[in-house]
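Re: export button greyed out
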Amino acid sequence: MAGPPLTILVHGGAGAMEKGRYTPEEEAAYKAKLTEALEAGYAVLERGGSALDAVETAIVILEDSPLFNAGKGAVFTRDGRNELDASIMDGATLNAGAVAGVTRVRNPIRLARAVMEKSAHVMFAREGAEKFAEEQGLELVSPAYFRTEARWKAYRDALEKEKKGKEGKPDKGAAADADYKYG
Amino acid sequence: TVGAVALDAEGNLAAGTSTGGMSMKRYGRVGDSPIIGAGTFADNRSCAVSSTGHGEYFIRLAIARDVCAQVEYAGKSVAEAARDVIHGRLQGLGGDGGVIVLGKDGGYTMEFNSKGMFRGVKQAGGPAQTAIYD
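Workaround output, generated via the alternate export path:
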């Protein structure tokens, strides 16, 4: 008797993306990357791999893409840094792992999984999380790896908008990052 | 933010979420993505959830856990539970965002109350499908 169908879903964030905001080429690029993540994750399932492996595989592809606010292409903090968070959970065991505020781990989802599987804890943060990543042999990168020009411009625009607002001259025309409000 | 949920041949569910967080966030701000039960949750008895949105609201409402609890305790479908949580509880508090949810039987939903959500699904026997807008 057949079991439930092999299935994978992905998302790349929610926000104020209205129709017309993206060119047809940009829409195609987003959809192509989502499809790549779906196909890669599904291939893991088809080979008999675990749901955990499928989730990690799909998310790594999205983290490595500059299109999304995760990994490369992450938005900037007010201090001009990229700080990354991630978590993963295994429905079979209720084991879970999470990391917060890392700046040098190329794929935070892999670190979250390492926390789940190779520590007695659920969440590591900041320097401690990065030390654990080092100990686990995960790939570390320069913080500059995560920067993209589009995100940097959005950050600079937001700073400028804030500065003008403080001077009592709110700049209504300043470009705001579409992800300003969203995770 | 990006995320994924999956159901394998053994009937096991998993969920994951990864993010750069909120743009212009202040020192030490942590959103819902690394908070188990807020941004991410998976339980073979109910469903797997990955979230995206205004994290502070997802933390206060334990969004991901709430969806699975409604499925487990109240016997709702994943679509019913996600609709209640996103369009009822989250919207009622003034928050916005969305979830992807996958049930233990393969039922799934992608629910959001923002203007769009980058999303996609591939299920046995069907092609990969993606969408951006409502």
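The CA atoms of residues 24 and 50 of chain B lie 23 Å apart. The button fix ships in the next patch.
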